[in-house]
Amino acid sequence: MKTIRSLAVVCSLLAFVGGSGLADPVPTTAPPVAGFEKMKSLVGEWTGKSRDGKPVTISYALVSSGSALMEKIGMPHESDMVTLYHPDGDSLMMTHYCAAHNQPRMRAGTVLPESRRIVFDFVDATNLASPDAGHMHRLEVTFEDRDRIVQEWTWREKGKEKIEIFTLERRK
User: Fold this and answer.
1) Which of 5, 10, 53, 134 is most open to solvent, judged by the fewest CB atoms within 10 Å of its CB?
2) Cβ distance 80 to 72 under 8 Å?
3) Higher pLDDT pick, 3 / 48
4) Pairing of β 91-97 and β 103-108
5) Domain locations in the chain?
6) Which contacts of 153-160 are long-range, i.e. CB under 8 A and separated by 24 or more positions?
7) Residues 55-64: contacts with CB within 8 Å, 24+ apart?
8) CA 35, chain centre distance (Å)
9) pLDDT, mean of residues 20-48
10) Could you say which of 3.40.50.10890, 3.30.70.100, 2.40.128.20, 2.60.40.2470 is the CATH number of the domain covering 34-170?
11) Could you give the C-alpha distances from 82 to 14, 20, 31, 98, 109, in angstroms and in order?
12) What contacts 114, CB < 8 A, 6 or more positions away?
């Protein structure tokens, strides 16, 4: 009798969970985010120069089943840096893994599908020694056309800012 009663309770619970929607699968796709869709158009290899004429190479690849865009920046005689771009709800976020050994996170403002520019502003950072410690604080990406972009990185340290500009062309 006790076994039948226990079985009835288990069956009732299974029927409740099955009928309540708790067992329904979680959707795996979110609505598209315009800024992320724009950034995804950069997939491939890019070459260019910094403002002072130093060569720069940047590669973009979709990772994690297309849920993030990985950017790898290479400059001669400097450590490569990686930035990951990803949607966060209906906005676009990035985390920059800097050669300065900190990881600033930035959020883009509203990006419309026809926008030519995406601006990311500092939100916070991990591994930042102090609020005055040097870190990337802003990034502006300007889409000149399908095969040309300009990146403007703003470095902030002790209240002062320095801007580095990369002018890039698609290689592949």
Assistant:
1) 53
2) yes
3) 48
4) antiparallel
5) 34-170
6) 156/122, 157/132, 157/133, 158/132, 158/134, 159/132
7) 56/166, 56/168, 58/151, 58/166, 58/168
8) 10
9) 79
10) 2.40.128.20
11) 47, 44, 26, 7, 21
12) none
**What does the mean pLDDT of the chain come to?**
88
Distance of CA 148 to the CA centre of its chain: 20
Residue 19: both structure tokens together:
């009928």
* Confidence bin at 60 (pLDDT 50/70/90): very high
Q: Give the N- to C-terminal CA distance of the chain in Å, as an integer.
A: 73
* Three-state secondary structure readout of 15-76: HHHHHHCCCCCCCCCCCCCHHHHHHHCCCEEEEEEECCCCEEEEEEEEECCCCEEEEEEECC
Phi/psi at 13 (nearest 5 deg)?
-65, -40
- When pLDDT is averaged across residues 109-113 and rounded to a whole number, the result is 90
pLDDT range class, residue 26, cuts 50, 70, 90: low
Residues 97-101, mean pLDDT to the nearest whole number: 96
In this prediction, residues 26-38 reach a mean pLDDT of: 79
Among the listed residues 146, 139, 147, the one whose alpha carbon sits nearest the alpha carbon of residue 119: 139
Q: Is the overall model pTM greater than 0.70, yes or no? A: yes
